[in-house]
């Protein structure tokens, strides 16, 4: 009996212990499950979403808090207020709970964590005020600030006077706006924007870009343009005529100075426009014909330079050009006259010769005299002399009505059968049926208003043997 009682008592104690352990286990499981559930449905203490602390909140509470918060939209540069924006709504709504749930799972840790963690979430109703207005305003303000700062100068390869070298980079203190705005773009949904200044750095002399520039300039240095003017060829060697050149963005920038100088030298040596000439008259006498007339040609520097620079930019080592495309003239024919004439001081062998002292006209074709006639030129007593110089036949017209003014006749209008103008002022050859005085001294007091009056009987032959652009020599 005694022994059985003791045994029973032991059994009772064991059963109590088991029961207690089971109860404790059940409580532990419940507490553990509750804790786990809480941990899985609530954010850790120092978790932020778009700069707003959501620590200890579940997804619904966090969404509500995010929704209720306004966005300040202030922009700080190096922790100093740089631009003050207006407040806007956060843009969060109940539609954003799935996003918050994803972040909740992402931040979960088995044990509570005090680690600061920041997440970004795109609000479903986010406006574009920050990216459109504030970003543009910040960019403009940075540009304005840069105007007060020194700009960095990139290193660059330069061809100067036949040699290729590299100009060193120079540092500045202007903001690198693109880099700063890149940081701005990463903070679209934060309460405020915090930026750090980034200084624009110049291109280094050791950069691939500068090395490529140098290589391209060395290729340019080996090029040559052969420029033919009439029968003479001129070599535009890059080493000699390119005072300065650079290469950037796939294109050469070439100074015009050296090329322009050489074109000037060619014009001085060969061009005929506006120059005086030594002319051999019908009688074999040599006379100087004054400069300033319209006959002749010259190379137009701007056209020639453009073509020569374009030739240097081509891949060819040597490019051949003819100057004929670059010439110009004055008067009616602006493309120049006499370029193809390389004999007889540039007027060739087909021309008209007018002697004021002899009051006579000769016309030559291919070196042979085809017309010879007396004429009456402009009236000397009233300073209406036919202008001396080297001119050309601008145009011909048959019949024609001549209108103008002269001494004794303010305005006249007269019909002629043949007309060939050779000066800008309106002087030309024409028949003069009204003229009765054809004396050799008529021009002194009874001359024309400046034209070369030609007898009616001779004018058709004169007209037929005059050709547009051919020289008219008056001396």
List the helices and strands and how they pair.
Elements: H1 2-41, E1 47-49, E2 52-53, H2 59-68, E3 70-71, E4 75-77, E5 80-83, E6 88-89, H3 97-107, E7 117-119, H4 129-146, E8 156-160, E9 163-167, H5 177-185, E10 193-195, H6 208-221, E11 224-229, E12 232-237, H7 238-241, E13 244-248, E14 251-254, H8 257-270, E15 277-280, E16 286-289, E17 298-299, H9 301-313, E18 318-322, E19 327-328, E20 351-355, E21 360-365, E22 368-374, E23 389-392, E24 395-397, E25 400-406, E26 409-416, E27 419-421, E28 428-431, H10 442-446, E29 452-454, H11 456-465, E30 471-474
Parallel strand pairs: 1-7, 4-10, 11-18, 20-30, 28-29
Antiparallel strand pairs: 1-2, 3-6, 4-5, 8-9, 8-13, 11-12, 13-14, 15-16, 17-19, 20-21, 21-22, 23-30, 24-27, 25-26, 27-28
Helix pairs in contact: 2-3, 4-5, 8-9
Structure description:
31% of the residues lie in helices and 26% in strands. With 475 residues, the protein is α+β, with helices and mostly antiparallel strands. The chain has four domains: 18-69 and 90-125, no CATH class; 130-208, no CATH class; 222-275 and 291-328, Roll (Ubiquitin-like (UB roll)); 349-474, L,D-transpeptidase catalytic domain-like (Beta Barrel), CATH 2.40.440.10. The radius of gyration is 48 Å and the shape is rod-shaped. It starts with a helix and ends with a strand. The relative contact order is 0.07. The model has no long low-confidence stretch (mean pLDDT 93).
């Amino acid at each position: 009996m005694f022994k059985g009682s003791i045994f029973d008592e032991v059994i009772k104690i064991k059963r109590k212990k088991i029961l207690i352990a089971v109860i404790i286990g059940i409580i532990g499981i419940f507490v553990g499950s509750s804790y786990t559930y809480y941990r899985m449905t609530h954010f850790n203490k120092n978790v932020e979403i778009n700069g707003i602390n959501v620590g200890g909140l579940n997804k619904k509470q966090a969404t509500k808090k995010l929704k209720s918060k306004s966005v300040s939209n202030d922009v700080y540069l190096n922790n100093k207020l740089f631009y003050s924006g207006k407040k806007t709504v956060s843009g969060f709504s109940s539609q954003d709970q799935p996003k918050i749930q994803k972040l909740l799972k992402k931040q979960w840790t088995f044990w509570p964590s005090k680690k600061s963690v920041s997440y970004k979430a795109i609000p479903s109703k986010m406006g574009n005020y920050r990216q459109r207005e504030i970003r543009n305003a910040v960019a403009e303000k940075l540009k304005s600030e840069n105007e007060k700062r020194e700009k960095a100068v990139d290193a660059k390869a330069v061809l100067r006077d036949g040699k290729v070298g590299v100009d060193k980079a120079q540092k500045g203190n202007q903001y690198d706006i693109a880099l700063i705005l890149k940081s701005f773009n990463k903070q679209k949904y934060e309460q405020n924007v915090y930026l750090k200044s980034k200084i624009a750095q110049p291109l280094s002399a050791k950069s691939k870009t500068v090395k490529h520039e140098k290589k391209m300039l060395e290729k340019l240095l080996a090029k040559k343009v052969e420029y033919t003017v009439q029968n003479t060829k001129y070599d535009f060697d890059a080493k000699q005529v390119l005072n300065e050149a650079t290469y950037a963005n796939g294109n050469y920038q070439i100074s015009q100075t050296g090329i322009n100088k050489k074109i000037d030298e060619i014009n001085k040596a060969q061009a005929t426009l506006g120059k005086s000439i030594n002319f051999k008259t019908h009688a074999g006498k040599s006379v100087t014909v004054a400069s300033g007339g319209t006959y002749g040609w010259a190379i137009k520097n701007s056209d020639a330079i453009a073509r020569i620079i374009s030739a240097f930019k081509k891949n060819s080592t040597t490019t051949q050009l003819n100057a004929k495309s670059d010439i110009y003239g004055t008067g009616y024919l602006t493309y120049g006259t006499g370029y193809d004439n390389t004999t007889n001081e540039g007027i060739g062998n087909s021309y008209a010769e007018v002697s004021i002292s002899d009051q006579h006209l000769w016309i030559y074709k291919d070196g042979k005299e085809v017309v010879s006639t007396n004429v009456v030129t402009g009236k000397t007593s009233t300073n209406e002399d036919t202008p001396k110089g080297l001119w050309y036949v601008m145009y011909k017209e048959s019949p024609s009505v001549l209108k103008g003014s002269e001494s004794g006749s303010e305005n006249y209008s007269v019909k002629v059968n043949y007309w060939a103008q050779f000066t800008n002022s309106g002087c030309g050859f024409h028949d003069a049926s009204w003229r009765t005085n054809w004396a050799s001294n008529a021009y002194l007091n009874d001359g024309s208003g400046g034209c070369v009056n030609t007898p009616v009987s001779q004018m058709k032959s004169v007209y037929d043997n005059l050709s547009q652009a051919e020289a008219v020599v008056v001396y």
